[in-house]
Design goal:
CATH class: Alpha Beta
Distance between the termini: 66 Å
Low-confidence stretches: none
Shape: elongated
Strand order of the largest sheet: 2-1-5-3-4
Mean pLDDT: 88
CATH superfamily: Beta-grasp domain
Oligomer: single chain
Strand content: 25-35%
Order of helices and strands: EEHHEEEH
Length: about 100
């Protein structure tokens, strides 16, 4: 028997705050539909849902991926700083202190 409603979580991490929204969505819903039905866009108006910026349990998926019961849908933010450059600056700063 197929469950008519799926229980999922939609998660979005902000600096210093993590939004976790538990919601029930119709079976057969896509990732995009689940995010829309969760109301996340109302809480984060500037949310950008590009391909590659969503995942389920840390595995990137497309917006048209079908959601299953118990999925944790994660919306990722774009990287604003190059991690290698940040690490390089940190190392240089430590060298100057020494």
């Amino acid at each position: 028997m197929v469950k008519a409603l799926l229980d999922v979580q939609v998660v979005y991490a902000l600096p210093g705050n993590i939004l976790v929204i538990d919601c029930s969505i119709p079976a057969g819903s896509t990732v995009a539909e689940a995010i829309h039905l969760s109301g996340l866009k109302l809480k984060v108006p500037d949310l950008c849902l590009d391909e590659g910026l969503v995942g389920i349990y840390s595995q990137k998926v497309s917006l048209d991926h079908t959601v299953t019961d118990g999925d944790r849908i994660e919306c990722y933010r774009s990287v604003t700083a190059d991690p290698k450059a940040v690490r390089r600056r940190r190392v240089e700063k430590k060298r100057k202190k020494s």
